[in-house]
Write a structure and sequence with these properties.
2 copies of one chain form a homodimer.
Chain A: E1 3-5, E2 8-11, E3 21-27, E4 32-38, E5 56-62, H1 67-70, H2 72-89, E6 97-104, H3 110-120, E7 129-133, H4 135-144, E8 150-155, E9 159-164, E10 170-174, H5 186-202, H6 210-218, H7 224-232, H8 236-240, H9 243-251, H10 255-279, E11 290-295, H11 297-300, H12 308-319, E12 323-326, H13 332-353
Parallel strand pairs in A: 3-6, 6-7, 8-11, 11-12
Antiparallel strand pairs in A: 1-2, 3-4, 4-5, 8-9, 9-10
Chain lengths: 354, 354
């Protein structure tokens, strides 16, 4: 073992023993991704320049691991399978693992963390540091290369704003699902567009090009058929997939679509601002800089004129000029791996100095 | 057979043969009710004074008969069962039936009418007039004693406005379900109240007494638990059952609850006005009188100060001063029976005069 010099970790391993590895897992409602990375990586946390040179050994993926969606047995099996596969693809094994971060959607309480810890604890040596977090942690860390400070805004099918302080405090806003008013989400935007069609058709709302544009995409011939289409399949993602049609309609000058997107921007900005305010992420005076990591299909649904993410940042910066937006270059599972690596190097330093 | 005098039907039957009967059926998503009534009833259509003296022989009830909810086989069985039971309770049988109106939720197209007609046609003699309609028809007729002219507003778990012209034209507004923005419905009101709790809790919205009032009713200890409660059971009626808590909170001076109810009133009035406008129910000048039948739990959720139905009428009458609100004294199945009776007496008059 080489130890470390000047606070930078150089190499944790004897050159003869198998290389230590780190696992980072991003478990979502659609898919689960596990990254295996060398534990000997020298990462300068906080910058973005190291993203391209991360020592990633392998990447495995599987289906949903949110136990609320698929049940506990299936979630446990998926988590186990995807980690075993990532290790195998990296020609490594569980004894080489130094730290793991599982960032899994559905984890909201300490009891959720305890449950998942019990599922995976026996798969690895006792010395392995295992961190269980919500999947927002992986998204946050993917933008800050492992550092948990600032705010992350995830706007895909659903939406949530999650804030982290360096002292460990966390806060969230939105993320309550479509029934409970996540109007900034992809589902929320598309549901408003479908509602606008119904209103134009039955005489309650203004005419809108969303009518023809959405009917064309769905292959329907009349607005009456929209009701049946909506209720034929309860999948939120299927509704949310209409977001690009709303953006395109707004870009072509449709006022109804434009209004829906502006409302969505307001909602997303409100969620972020609520988190900033509660955690004082921008300092007592609201002027300090802080990172805002932004991910998800709604943020990426930008065309020539309409860029939802840019508009959200514009609104936030009116109140908090120190907002520093980051669109991550690496995927959330890599963020999770960096959280694990960060923890491992910290504990390693403590071990060495004690 | 006595025939008729002065255009009033006195008695259709020989005194020796079994009395002719009428069936009226109201098929909803929660329950199905069938009324058996004497075909010899003398009804003055349009007034409300005859409601108490209708010659109702029996009333049978069963579960859901909306084929979209329970499937075609179960819906067919329920319709058949409830009609047979009503006839049996009235000590009558299918050969005594003169006319039937089945007003069933889920009937929206001629193909739906044809399907149900095929299910029930063989149960009765060929001469029996069978009318198949949407359940809004039963609600309308329950307020006008069988006459299909005017508008009906149904605001229960869902909401819909349905308009009828004497020439047979119909129009509807709303009734598209919770995903598609029925914000005036019981579900819509309660979902907004639950959303207000989430917003107050995560710092996006003002504080509201809805928080404690709803948590108490649901037996929950924290707003975080509301998300899990909401998604634990997808029943819309379960959410809509919170409407009385919203009304009570508004009456106690809660501004958030008050705003939700005012928005709901606006939405319901907009739906009715869209139907009036499209059918010109209030004449070319918008000043002619027309009946507005109002039914459902939201309309009935009035306490001392807040009366949603009254506020809806107030808004409509600003544009259409001829609106004449009716809160029916008889149930929708009786309305359906009166539609059938109305048709029967019409055809009887035609037969006699031809």
């Amino acid at each position: 073992m080489k130890g470390y010099t000047n606070g930078e970790i150089q190499d944790f391993e004897d050159e003869t023993s198998p290389a230590g590895v780190i696992l980072g897992l991003d478990g979502g409602t659609t898919s689960t991704v596990c990254i295996c990375m060398l534990a000997s990586a020298s990462i300068s946390f906080g910058g973005g320049e190291a993203a391209e040179s991360l020592p990633i050994l392998s990447r495995a993926s599987a289906g949903c691991s949110n136990f609320n969606s698929v049940g506990e047995a299936a979630a446990k099996e998926t988590l186990e399978k995807v980690m075993v596969e990532a290790l195998s693809m990296a020609h490594s094994n569980s004894s080489a693992v130094r730290a793991i971060c599982l960032a899994v959607s559905g984890v909201n309480h300490p009891s959720d963390q305890q449950k998942i810890l019990e599922w995976v604890r026996d798969l690895f040596p006792c010395s392995v540091k295992i961190i269980i977090e919500n999947d927002a942690v992986a998204a946050m860390a993917s933008g800050t290369l492992g550092k948990l400070h600032g705010c992350v805004l995830i706007a895909g099918t659903g939406c949530i704003a999650y804030g982290f302080c360096e002292d460990g405090r966390q806060a969230r806003a939105a993320g309550a699902g479509p029934i409970l008013g996540d109007w900034g989400s992809g589902y929320g935007i598309a549901a408003q567009a479908l509602t606008a069609i119904i209103r134009a058709h039955d005489g309650r709302g203004p005419q809108t090009t969303l009518m023809n544009n959405i009917l064309n995409v769905l292959g329907l011939s009349s607005p009456d058929e929209v009701i049946g289409w909506t209720y034929a399949d309860p999948s939120w993602a299927r509704i949310a997939a209409l977001v690009p049609v709303v953006v395109a309609s707004a870009e072509d000058g449709d006022e109804v679509a434009d209004k829906i997107l502006h409302y969505s921007v307001q909602e997303l900005a409100d969620s972020v601002k609520a988190v900033i305010r509660r955690l004082k992420l921008s300092g007592e005076d609201g002027k300090s800089p802080f990172p805002l990591v932004m991910v998800g299909g709604v943020i990426e649904a930008n065309n020539k004129k309409w860029d939802i993410g840019k508009e959200v940042v514009k609104l936030i910066s009116k109140d908090y000029p120190g907002v520093f937006p980051i669109r991550p270059k690496v995927e959330p599972a890599v963020g999770a791996a960096l959280v694990a690596l960060n923890q491992y190097t910290k504990s390693f330093r403590v071990d060495q100095s004690s």
